[in-house]
């Protein structure tokens, strides 16, 4: 085996984030003598060497005389050897040298090398001085070789004479200053013939220059990083040969290393690669709503883009890029002639659509499916109006980037990504500008953060320099993108900016050239010329604006509820089209209305709207949009439900019984649940309660019904007369808490009670103890036999924190808020409902003088979850309200749901990167697990979490005063739940429970003949980690006859980070099944088994898998 032969390196090894100083140290060692010179370049500078071929005789000239050649020839010569000493200072020795070329030197260029440590002259035997040598250790002085033969012949003989002077080039001490040592002796170190390794010696020369470029040019120069990268690459290519067999590999490696050096110097001739290349593009960031309402943005877009069109007409070299399909649609509707101009200049390559999304959306809070729709609606729009899709995913200003974006952007046809917002980090500087961003599932997108750190460049000399100086990946690329033009409120480039760039474009003295180019052109060039790019894995967490997970709670709640509602409408409407029990030929899938409602949801996900950082004026309009979605969505949902259960031609109720239809839209079964019924929806006279111990009427007069064994993706009917099997009631009792559980808190403001009483609530799954204020003393999980709450601490405690950031009021909650928090005032709990289906403790906390909180703590007979149904009347100034659970779990990281998966973040502040994540975003669940046990916290509309050690906190409300002084000053209703589970997170059903906590079964009262009770399972997915998330009709349904076929899109995701093959059974009669991307483009066929009833779908960790089914209607 040839060890030295070049082995292909894996990608990862070559894409290290290299540490500059360590790399320079490595380079220095490559050419240094001394330590390591048996394994560095020095050891291969010579191919052959022989001392035996050289025979020496010496004649010492007496009395430090300097004699002529002729006199010297008369001297008396005696044999001598390497190792002998010669002196004293300033004396002279003459040598006669006889050399015979050995056989193995035949054909080589042969040198004579003589190092006496002193100066000497080489003479021919007939008295002609040939050349002077200088021996010694100083590399810059040393010259000890003489070319003996260009093409040596074996047996060839050479005779030379040497005149050795016992002094160095600079005297005896090699310096003039001290008194010379007149009795110094020099040892003859070398008298050899040798064959040079020409490539290695040239490489040494190149390598010394590279090291000088690294050390002696300014670090921000392009050539500096290039030289460092080149030296490092040479060392990676270089291999030593240990023995004969490996020699071939060594020669190849040396030639490769030499070639790298040669190419470097060829590429870096004047005007070459050492100039940084800036690609400049005009841009105009228009916030879709922020310090102005949507209606003004319509006019801003028109004004800004019309101006840019005039510049394009004036200057055919000017290019401009604009994102956000929503803004294009507004301009198309409001300014049709301008829109025609935009289309015309798009064709000319000057007006360049970018981004591929509906708006530049928030990516922390939006659901996975919402992100899909941002791309779907965005790309469909661009394609329909410009005949092409965007290739660059563009989000310069969003407050953090989900780890699923690389996969989703790629699925939407975009392999390039741009932002600059991470430069706003207020704790750690992000280490890269050009890199590969790898998502949760390892999909990679080529990413660029413009090093000018702005999307509103002003075309100044300073910004041109910043492009070069601040570029952190110059070793891997010499290109950067520069966005110029006024932004945020629109405007865009001014004409003098364009002119300035043209003047600066090729100016001598600036370390960069500037050319105009569109984003796609830039990324394509970047892709082709960059090398060994560093990889960043996982989310791009913005270390700033952490308050946006919480500010404006109602917007977040409406967004979550709208996402759920539209999912339900799509799911139910698709079922109507495919229900095998009922042909509804009248029913039309509400495609255009769904389209309209989705667009309202999507526009409100803009990166200053959903985060809660816009004016009140904006939110008035935003709430109108959401109310429209809520009302119209519910109408569509009811239309679909009626179509599903229409009793149509039944004219009398005779023989019919009251029942309920329960629809489980999730892809998991539900063991048991308690559903609520509004009595007014039931047929008058229905007997529900009687004396049964397994039924319950709520305090507000609603019927509670226990239903069990709900199948996945199913419609199931339940007659309201049958007792469920295996029913164990939930019970509550008043207890005296043990004295050691009278907990200390930070507050003295208790409402005083005379005895330490509390409540114990128990069902089949858990035993929970609360103190008299509704705070959790103990939560015992009966299956795992674990206690969930840290002993002597309290859960469900409300904490208030002073929340005054250093600026950016609605945006920022700053790290120091954690230093200044206290317990809110508490009230007394009472029992509101006492079982058997449900126990409710009710408590009202005064919180502060201005605000109060009312909570219903709910435990049902159905599962081991404690729900906290919460209402807060909130009127604070720069306070943040959190709820706290001290969980009896030891783990260095907590798990938070993100789009189509989860992300784990530290529960400690070891490093500045850990500390920076003191407040993080999570979706429906956060979980803290150790081996064998864990506790999850669910919510129905909250997103801000912080976990330190075992203390998990959820941020409930903030009270910033800018830019909307009324932010969150209202009544809030939200729910959260605590769920202990056996097994760690990966072994738990947390994903399912959190999902079902949000996607509750839909309950629809029906009248039915008992013989017609139905149980229709539409979907059954064999793998519980593979989630069926979306069921909808395709945007462009196939087939001419819509009455016969339905074109259905199913979207799944893998939720735990595992792989496998799922068998998906459906009731549909499938004609064809194809995989598709998120734009619904058809891809490969899906294997179908069981006569068209079962799809066989392989999947990988965190993969989003979309399938299009053509089903018979
Ligand atoms: Zn913005």
Automatic annotation (TrEMBL):
**Listed EC numbers:** 3.2.1.24
Enumerate the spans annotated as Glycoside hydrolase family 38 central domain.
543-626
Gene3D superfamilies on file: Glycoside hydrolase 38, N terminal domain, Glycoside hydrolase family 38, central domain, Golgi alpha-mannosidase II, domain 4
* Catalytic reaction equation(s): Hydrolysis of terminal, non-reducing alpha-D-mannose residues in alpha-D-mannosides
One GO biological process this protein is involved in is: mannose metabolic process
Alphabetically sorted, this entry's keywords are: Glycosidase, Hydrolase, Metal-binding
Instruction: List GO molecular-function terms, semicolon-separated.
Output: alpha-mannosidase activity; carbohydrate binding; metal ion binding
By sequence similarity, the record places it as follows: Belongs to the glycosyl hydrolase 38 family.
* Protein role: Degrades free oligosaccharides in the vacuole.
Q: What is this protein called?
A: Alpha-mannosidase
Q: Which organism is it from?
A: Rhizoclosmatium globosum
Top-level taxonomy = Eukaryota, Fungi, Fungi incertae sedis, Chytridiomycota, Chytridiomycota incertae sedis
């Amino acid at each position: 085996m040839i060890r030295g032969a070049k082995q292909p390196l894996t990608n990862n090894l070559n894409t290290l984030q290299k540490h500059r100083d360590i790399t320079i140290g490595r380079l220095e060692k490559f050419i240094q003598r001394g330590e390591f010179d048996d394994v560095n370049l020095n050891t291969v500078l010579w191919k052959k060497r022989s001392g035996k071929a050289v025979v020496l005789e010496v004649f010492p000239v007496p009395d430090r005389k300097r004699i002529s050649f002729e006199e010297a020839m008369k001297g008396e010569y005696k044999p001598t050897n390497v190792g002998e000493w010669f002196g004293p200072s300033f004396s002279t020795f003459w040598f006669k040298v006889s050399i015979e070329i050995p056989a193995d030197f035949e054909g080589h260029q042969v040198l004579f090398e003589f190092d006496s440590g002193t100066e000497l002259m080489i003479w021919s035997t007939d008295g002609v001085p040939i050349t002077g040598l200088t021996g010694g250790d100083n590399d810059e002085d040393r010259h000890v070789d003489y070319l003996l033969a260009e093409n040596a012949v074996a047996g060839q003989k050479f005779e030379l004479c040497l005149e050795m002077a016992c002094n160095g080039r600079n005297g005896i001490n090699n310096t003039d200053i001290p008194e010379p040592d007149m009795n110094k002796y020099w040892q003859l170190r070398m008298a050899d013939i040798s064959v040079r390794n020409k490539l290695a010696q040239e490489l040494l020369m190149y390598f010394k220059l590279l090291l000088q470029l690294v050390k002696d040019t300014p670090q921000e120069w392009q050539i500096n990083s290039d030289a460092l990268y080149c030296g490092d690459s040479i060392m990676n290519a270089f291999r030593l040969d240990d023995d004969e067999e490996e020699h071939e590999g060594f020669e190849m490696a040396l030639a490769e290393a030499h070639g790298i050096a040669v190419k470097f110097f060829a590429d870096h001739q004047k005007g070459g690669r050492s100039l940084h290349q800036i690609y400049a593009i005009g841009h105009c960031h228009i916030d879709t709503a922020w310090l102005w309402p949507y209606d003004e943005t319509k006019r801003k877009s028109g004004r800004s883009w019309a101006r840019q069109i005039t510049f394009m007409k004036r200057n055919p070299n000017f290019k401009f890029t604009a994102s956000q399909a929503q803004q294009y649609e507004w301009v198309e509707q409001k300014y049709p002639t301008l829109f025609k101009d935009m289309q015309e200049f798009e064709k000319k390559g000057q007006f360049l659509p970018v981004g591929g999304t509906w708006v530049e959306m928030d990516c922390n809070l939006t659901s996975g499916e919402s992100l899909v729709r941002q791309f779907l609606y965005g790309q469909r729009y661009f394609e329909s109006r410009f005949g092409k899709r965007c290739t660059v995913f563009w989000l310069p200003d969003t407050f953090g980037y989900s780890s699923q974006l690389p996969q989703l952007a790629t699925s939407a046809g975009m392999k390039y990504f741009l932002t600059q917002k991470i430069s706003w980090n207020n704790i750690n500087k992000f280490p890269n500008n050009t890199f590969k961003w790898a998502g949760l599932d390892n999909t990679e997108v080529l990413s660029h953060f413009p090093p000018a750190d702005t999307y509103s460049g002003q075309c100044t000399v300073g910004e041109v320099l910043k492009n070069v100086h601040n570029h952190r990946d110059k070793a891997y690329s010499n290109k950067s993108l520069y966005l110029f033009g006024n932004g945020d409120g629109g405007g865009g480039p001014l004409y003098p900016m364009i002119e300035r760039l043209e003047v600066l474009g090729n100016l001598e003295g600036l370390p960069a050239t500037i050319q105009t180019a569109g984003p796609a052109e830039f990324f394509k060039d970047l892709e082709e010329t960059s090398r060994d790019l560093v990889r960043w894995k996982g989310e791009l967490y913005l270390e700033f604006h952490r308050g946006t997970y919480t500010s404006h709670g109602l917007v977040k709640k409406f967004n979550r509820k709208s996402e759920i509602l539209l999912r339900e409408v799509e799911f139910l409407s698709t079922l109507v089209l495919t229900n095998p029990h009922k042909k509804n030929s009248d029913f039309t899938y509400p495609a255009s209305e769904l389209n309209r409602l989705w667009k309202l949801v999507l526009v409100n996900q803009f990166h200053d709207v959903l985060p809660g950082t816009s004016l009140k004026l904006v939110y008035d309009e935003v709430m109108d949009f959401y109310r429209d979605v809520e009302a119209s969505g519910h109408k569509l949902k009811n239309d679909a439900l009626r179509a599903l259960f229409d009793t149509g031609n039944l004219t009398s109720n005779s023989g019919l019984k009251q029942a309920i239809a329960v629809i489980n839209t999730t892809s998991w079964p539900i063991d048991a649940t308690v559903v609520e019924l509004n009595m007014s929806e039931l047929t008058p006279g229905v007997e529900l309660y009687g004396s049964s111990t397994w039924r319950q009427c709520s305090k507000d007069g609603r019927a509670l019904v226990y239903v069990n064994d709900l199948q996945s993706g199913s419609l199931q009917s339940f007659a309201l007369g049958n007792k469920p099997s295996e029913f164990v009631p939930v019970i509550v009792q008043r207890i005296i808490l043990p004295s050691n559980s009278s907990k200390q808190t930070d507050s003295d403001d208790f409402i005083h009670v005379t005895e330490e009483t509390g409540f114990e609530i128990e069902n089949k799954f858990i035993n929970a103890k609360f103190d008299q204020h509704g705070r959790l003393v103990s939560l015992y999980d009966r299956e795992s036999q674990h206690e969930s709450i840290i002993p002597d601490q309290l859960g469900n405690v409300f904490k208030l924190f002073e929340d005054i950031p250093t600026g950016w009021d609605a945006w920022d909650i700053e790290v120091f808020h954690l230093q200044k928090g206290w317990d809110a005032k508490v009230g007394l709990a009472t029992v509101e409902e006492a079982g058997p289906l449900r126990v409710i403790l009710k408590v009202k906390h005064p919180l502060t003088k201005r605000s109060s909180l009312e909570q219903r703590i709910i435990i049902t007979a159905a599962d081991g979850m404690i729900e906290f149904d919460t209402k807060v009347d909130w009127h604070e100034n720069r306070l943040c309200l959190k709820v706290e659970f001290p969980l009896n779990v030891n783990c260095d990281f907590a798990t938070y749901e993100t789009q189509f998966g989860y992300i784990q973040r530290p529960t400690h502040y070891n490093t500045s990167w850990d500390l920076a994540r003191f407040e993080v975003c999570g979706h429906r669940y956060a979980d803290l697990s150790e081996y064998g046990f864990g506790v999850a916290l669910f919510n129905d509309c909250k997103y801000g979490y912080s976990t330190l050690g075992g203390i998990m906190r959820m941020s409930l409300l903030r009270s910033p005063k800018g830019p909307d002084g009324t932010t969150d000053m209202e009544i809030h209703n939200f729910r959260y739940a605590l769920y202990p589970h056996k097994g760690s997170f990966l072994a738990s059903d947390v994903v399912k429970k959190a999902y079902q906590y949000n996607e509750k079964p839909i309950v629809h009262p029906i009248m039915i003949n008992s013989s017609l009770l139905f149980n229709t399972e539409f979907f059954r997915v064999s793998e519980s980690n593979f989630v069926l998330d979306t069921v909808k009709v395709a945007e462009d349904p196939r087939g001419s006859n819509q009455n016969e076929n339905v074109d259905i899109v199913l979207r799944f995701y893998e939720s735990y980070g595992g792989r496998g093959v799922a068998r998906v059974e459906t009731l549909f009669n499938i004609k064809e099944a194809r995989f598709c991307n998120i734009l619904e483009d058809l891809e490969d066929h899906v294997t179908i088994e069981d006569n068209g009833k079962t799809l066989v779908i392989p999947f990988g960790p965190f993969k989003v898998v979309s399938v299009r089914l053509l089903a018979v209607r």
